[in-house]
Design goal:
Elements: H1 3-23, H2 27-34, H3 40-44, H4 48-54, H5 58-74, H6 92-105, H7 109-132
């Protein structure tokens, strides 16, 4: 695939993602359509190498930001606890997507989920550092 083809596909995914972000009834629906096992990203970028390369793009970062905003809109605040174990319930489509991604990255589901949970925190820390400079 040429760089022009790759860029065109990435831009098209972002455009479709923006449309779904407006139309989706929940972040789960958005996730399934964009990031899910049968989502547009995996439909367009079929190889692990292509997926990994796409995940490095600004378009992918924008899609993640869209999902984060959808999650914040539906988030219910809960008290913090002192527990060290977190159990979450996710739809089957999200679980399948995480398992596939963990397999593609040759890591465990637990390590992948931990990295994904920490990612928004790291991004906010970087933004804070930039604004302080």
């Amino acid at each position: 695939m040429t760089q022009d083809d790759f860029d065109y596909k990435a831009a098209n995914i972002l455009k479709r993602g923006a449309e779904w972000a407006v139309a989706a009834e929940s972040w789960i629906e958005f996730h399934d359509a964009v990031f899910g096992v049968r989502g547009i990203i995996r439909a367009v970028f079929e190889t692990s190498a292509e997926l990994i390369e796409f995940e490095k793009t600004p378009q992918y970062a924008e899609l993640q930001e869209m999902m984060a905003k959808l999650q914040q809109q539906s988030e219910v605040r809960k008290k913090e606890s002192n527990r060290r174990v977190v159990t979450i319930r996710v739809p089957t489509c999200v679980h399948e997507a995480l398992l596939a991604e963990a397999h593609d990255r040759r890591t465990t589901l637990n390590k992948l989920c931990t990295a994904k949970l920490l990612q928004p925190l790291r991004e906010k820390e970087k933004q804070t550092e930039r604004s302080e400079v």
